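Z., the sequence and structure:
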Amino acid sequence: MTDYKEEQLQELDILQSIYPDEISIINNEFPAIALQVNLLIETIPKDTSSFTAEMIDWEYHLNIMFKLPENYPDVAPLIEITPIETKKSHIKEEEEEEEEEDQAYDEHGNPIKSKITDIPGKIHFDDEYIHDKLLSHTIPSQIENDMLLGMPMLFTLINSIKEDAEEYYTEKLHQYELKHEKEIQERELIENAKFVGTKVTKETFNAWRIKFRKELSLDERNKERLMKSHGGRLSGRQIFEQGLAGDDDDEQELIEGVAVV
């Protein structure tokens, strides 16, 4: 017959030796043993990240409450998890204020959106993660494995929660960085597009040339200049070479404008 009281008290002693600073005993009286573990989540970025662990000014803990049923470990413990987020210091807040005062601008006069911003501050161990991920998947899966082995499970549960939370943080940081980088690139493309002219082709150049000459009355001025230089009359060849004969010109008007050569 299993001595549940002895097993639970032994596991409690082991946990206190492993987590001397993190564990708090809420009740050590069987059959209502309860304890709380204040678990530090280490924030470790990917190798490709713009951040290092030292640059992250946020500290995350998960407070895990375990309540042991009378016949634990044959029955799973009751678990509650509360996330805690705190700033490590106020030093970086002062640095950020100084950086805001010394705002840099790009060549177009727009404020430069820094690649190193407080992205870590956007990451939270919210209810969706706690309930939908940890309590619904990670923890039940670990409990099932431990119960198959018939062994105390609090230590392995704590490790599983820690590993899952740290992986979650690393991946979230990576996703936010990719999103931030994409926003910067899109903004740069928009700004650069403002300074890219229309590609010049033969057709666009001819259209511009016609419009330009019309606006400045160049063709009329050329016609007047040539008329003066030829005594008021142009040869048929000159008329066609200068493009002065319109599509709707009357034949008689064309004949009258042609000098005998």
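The chain has two domains: 4-92+102-193, 202-256. DSSP finds eight helices and four strands in the chain.

Let me know what you think.
H.
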